[in-house]
DNA sequence: AAGCTTTTGATTTTT
DNA sequence: TCAAAAGCTT
């Protein structure tokens, strides 16, 4: 490598000894190659569980230890903050403090860092705010209404989706207009809305998530001397989960890895654009690029990820080296064989076979329930069995395709007193009260952001409705001032005295908070200023008072959430003593839920298959393995849909280390209707001998299913002859057109409503009757208050744990 | 402007 | 089913 800035360190490693010998310890030959290869471009095709994070972190460490790069010359990009945090931690373990100077971050936060520095180059200020999808939807909704576009079938959601898609392709309103069919009035309207949306963002000094990437690319292309600054700085770029990159992200990487042309030794010298002769030799060759990915795990095409970025890497970067990691260090061979078999049904992919040397392991367990509750009961029972066998709850996970499936699982888990935690789900920062509080902060940090102002102007209720808001907006437009500044002239707005007072008061509160959080230039705000300012805003605006006065029980929780946010601000100040209000807002906008993962200790994790990517568990329950669920019904119509669903299923399977359970239900209540479900086609793609069906779809079908599982729970092993051989002959699929009369037999045995046994007293020796499990004897009672759990040995259904308060039981 | 009732319609998700 | 959004009333 002709790296001109290669540092030479006195007293470096003695000649001959490899400085990175320990970094290669325990690595297989392919992994070693991935760590040590040096060249312009390297693609690491890393199958599931093949130790890619280890390879990536060691590669970085090896670059640093070999003095091939300064920390500041390394840019490592991941998709989530969690992944970035983990990577930083692991690099730190290898190289210590020097990890600090590196940029290890997500695409989005890397772009924010760049944009904050360069925003003034193109009409934004450093204090720009970031619109999340909710913010942009609100804005688009307003624009759709303004243009009366719903008459043409342009819903806010559709417009938002289309704009996002276009931005991921680096298109803007003008370039799209050139290709669009403008004789279609809906198209014309869309182009107008797109244009307006962009103008509104600019006016609000804001970027949406897609802009963070797209505008950075724009910046680099429009101002080559700016791009050169970053090209000089980042000499080694590493991208994780490359199969999930969209076109804009791809373009960003491309821009950053371009050679630096010309003699611009003073990058900002001329300010304008510099034209160079084409034949000029590059002053500095492009940065080295390492990407890691697995096209079989690409499950985000629906949000713009372009699988071609990885499949055509070698074409995009000629001379690229490709390293294939196929040895799996996570799962048993049975699990891997199932995964290989399933993914093998996808055509148009490079063949790749995961293998392991840990042995076959347990068979994959299959189970078919009569209803989703029945299925859930199986999962809960099995979780308990594993727990009794010594497996910690935190080593088990339950996956499902759609969030709505979690409900039935939760109901049963609560009853069975199994501690669980839902990953993903509603996010803290998406709660209304948190968004309100943040809008107050934004109103202070970026007064140009009208969205934030509109959000808070009537929260708490100040009697300001649409009419008044439009009056203010019109006044601001007439006077050529911002919405925020218009508030200072409440008397000139021509609104009622009551409203005038309210507006003046809000203005005063914002001013007071600004004095706390935004000190005069030259001064530095004390670290606590954000938390203090936030408290001022929440208290003096009357926001907290309104919640306290409310009789809605949820509002108490909202107050607690606000306290939590203040605590987050304090914590932020502790970790970033120099952190400003803007830094805090950036972190909060870009960081989803900080440490969801660590909280899961001692509980079973529930999550969607998408959320499961990148995680691993000893025991995995993949539930709802039914047609129309996985593959999801809607995916059938989309190009590449079924294949992506198969990859999703593959991702789910490969999360399991030792035990994998595939379960489904014969009937599923969806949208209030009970419908018959068919086993997923993916089940048939798993070789029969890898699976052991506790209850196969055939069993359930032949029996007609009037019994709830609870009554025949001990029947268990259906093996031997007959129904248990699902897969030999093609599955006896239940017919969809089954008469509705039959369905009632499957109706949920478990009522959706939670019953309350009040303070029923139970003790060891008591006999009880359970709606589903029949009679049994209490062995012991543990826990306290509402969480008392009875350990019951049922006469026919075996041992169960029951939450006394809500279990459908009576004392005999 | 705010509170009520009716209607609608419903993957997957990180930033 | 069930929550959110739209529509309607006061």
Brief descriptors of the model:
812 residues; alpha/beta; seven-stranded parallel sheet; six-stranded parallel sheet; 30 helices; 24 strands; globular; disordered N terminus; DNA-binding; P-loop_NTPase; isomerase; nucleotide-binding
How are the elements arranged and paired?
Layout: H1 29-36, E1 41-46, H2 52-65, E2 74-78, H3 81-95, E3 103-106, H4 107-118, E4 129-131, H5 133-146, H6 156-168, H7 173-179, H8 185-203, E5 206-208, H9 209-222, H10 224-233, E6 236-239, H11 247-256, E7 260-261, E8 282-284, E9 288-293, H12 308-311, H13 313-316, E10 321-325, H14 333-343, E11 364-369, H15 372-388, E12 396-400, H16 406-415, E13 420-422, H17 432-445, H18 450-456, H19 466-479, H20 483-486, H21 497-517, H22 529-540, H23 543-549, H24 554-575, H25 581-590, E14 604-608, H26 609-612, E15 617-622, H27 641-653, E16 656-665, E17 667-670, E18 673-676, H28 681-684, E19 691-695, H29 697-703, H30 740-746, E20 767-770, E21 774-782, E22 789-794, E23 798-803, E24 809-811
Parallel strand pairs: 1-9, 1-10, 2-3, 2-6, 4-5, 6-9, 11-16, 11-19, 12-14, 12-15, 13-14, 15-16
Antiparallel strand pairs: 7-8, 17-18, 20-21, 20-24, 21-22, 22-23
Helix pairs in contact: 1-2, 2-3, 4-9, 5-6, 5-8, 7-8, 9-10, 9-11, 14-27, 15-16, 17-18, 17-21, 21-22, 22-24
The chain binds a DNA duplex (15 and 10 nucleotides) through α4, α9, α19, α26 and α27.
């Amino acid at each position: 490598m002709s790296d001109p800035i290669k540092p030479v360190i006195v007293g470096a490693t003695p000649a001959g000894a490899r400085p990175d010998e320990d970094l290669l310890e325990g690595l297989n030959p392919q992994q070693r190659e991935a760590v040590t290869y040096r060249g312009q471009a390297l693609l690491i095709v890393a199958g599931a569980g093949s130790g890619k994070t280890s390879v990536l972190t060691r590669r970085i460490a090896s670059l640093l230890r070999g003095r091939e790069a300064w920390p500041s010359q390394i840019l490592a990009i991941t998709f989530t903050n969690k992944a970035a945090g983990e990577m930083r931690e692991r690099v730190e373990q290898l190289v210590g403090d020097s990890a600090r100077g590196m940029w290890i971050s997500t695409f989005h936060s890397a772009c924010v860092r760049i944009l904050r520095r360069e925003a003034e180059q193109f009409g934004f200020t450093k204090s720009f705010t970031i619109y999340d999808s909710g913010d942009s939807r609100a804005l688009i909704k307003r624009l759709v209404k303004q243009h009366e576009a719903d008459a043409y079938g342009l819903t806010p959601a559709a417009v938002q989706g289309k704009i996002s898609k276009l931005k991921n392709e680096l298109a803007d309103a003008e370039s799209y207009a050139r290709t669009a069919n403008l004789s279609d009035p809906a198209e014309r309207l869309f182009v107008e809305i797109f244009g307006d949306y962009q103008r509104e963002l600019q006016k609000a000094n804001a970027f949406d998530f897609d802009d963070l990437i797209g505008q950075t690319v724009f910046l680099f292309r429009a101002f080559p001397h700016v791009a050169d600054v970053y090209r000089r700085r980042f000499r080694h770029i590493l991208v994780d989960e490359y199969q999930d990159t969209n076109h804009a992200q791809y373009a960003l990487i491309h821009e950053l890895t371009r050679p630096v042309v010309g003699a611009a030794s003073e990058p900002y010298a001329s300010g304008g654009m510099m034209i160079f002769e084409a034949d000029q030799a590059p002053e500095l060759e492009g940065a080295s690029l390492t990407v890691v990915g697995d096209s079989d795990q690409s499950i985000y095409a629906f949000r713009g990820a372009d699988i071609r970025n990885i499949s055509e890497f070698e074409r995009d970067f000629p001379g690229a080296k490709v390293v294939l990691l196929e040895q799996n260090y996570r799962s048993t061979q049975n699990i891997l064989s199932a995964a290989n078999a399933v993914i093998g049904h996808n055509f148009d992919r490079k063949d790749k076979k995961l293998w392991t040397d840990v042995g076959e392991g347990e068979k994959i367990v299959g189970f078919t329930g009569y209803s989703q509750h029945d299925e859930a009961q199986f999962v809960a029972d099995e979780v308990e069995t594993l727990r009794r066998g010594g497996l910690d709850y935190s080593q088990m996970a339950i996956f499902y395709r759609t969030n709505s499936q979690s409900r039935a699982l939760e109901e049963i888990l609560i009853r069975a007193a199994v501690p669980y935690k839902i990953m993903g789900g509603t996010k803290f920062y998406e709660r209304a009260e948190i968004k309100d509080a943040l809008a107050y902060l934004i109103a202070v940090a970026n007064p140009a952001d009208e969205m934030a102002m509109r959000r808070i102007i009537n929260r708490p209720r100040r009697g300001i409705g649409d009419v008044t808001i439009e009056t203010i907006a019109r006044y601001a437009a007439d006077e050529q001032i911002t919405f925020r500044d218009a508030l200072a002239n409440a008397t000139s707005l021509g609104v009622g005295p009551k409203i005038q007072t309210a507006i003046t008061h809000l203005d005063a509160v914002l001013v007071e908070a600004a004095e706390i959080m935004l000190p005069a230039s030259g001064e530095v705000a004390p670290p606590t200023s954000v938390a203090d300012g936030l408290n001022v805003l929440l208290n003096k605006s009357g926001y907290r008072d309104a919640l306290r006065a409310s009789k809605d029980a949820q509002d108490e929780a909202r107050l607690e959430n606000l306290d939590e946010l203040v605590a987050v601000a304090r914590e932020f100040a502790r970790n970033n003593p120099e952190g400003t209000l803007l830094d805090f807002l950036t972190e909060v906008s870009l960081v989803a839920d900080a440490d969801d993962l660590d909280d899961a200790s001692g509980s079973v994790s529930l999550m969607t298959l998408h959320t499961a990517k990148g995680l691993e568990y000893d025991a995995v329950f993949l539930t709802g393995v039914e047609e129309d669920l996985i593959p999801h019904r809607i995916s059938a119509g989309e190009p590449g849909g079924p294949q992506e669903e198969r990859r999703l299923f593959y991702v789910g399977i490969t999360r399991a280390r030792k035990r994998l359970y595939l379960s489904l239900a014969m009937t599923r209540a969806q949208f209030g209707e009970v419908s018959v479900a068919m086993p997923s086609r993916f089940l048939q793609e798993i070789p029969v001998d890898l699976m052991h069906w506790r209850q196969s779809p055939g069993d359930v079908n032949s029996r007609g299913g009037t019994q709830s599982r609870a009554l025949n729970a001990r029947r268990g092993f259906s093996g031997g002859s007959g129904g248990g051989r699902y897969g030999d002959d093609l599955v006896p699929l239940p017919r969809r057109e089954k008469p509705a009369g039959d369905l009632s037999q499957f109706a949920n045995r478990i009522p959706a409503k939670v019953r309350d046994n009040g303070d029923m007293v139970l003790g060891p020796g008591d006999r009880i009757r359970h709606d589903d499990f029949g009679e049994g004897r209490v062995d012991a009672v543990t826990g306290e208050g509402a969480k008392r759990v009875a350990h019951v040995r049922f006469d026919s259904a075996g041992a169960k744990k029951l939450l006394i308060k809500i279990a459908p039981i009576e004392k005999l």
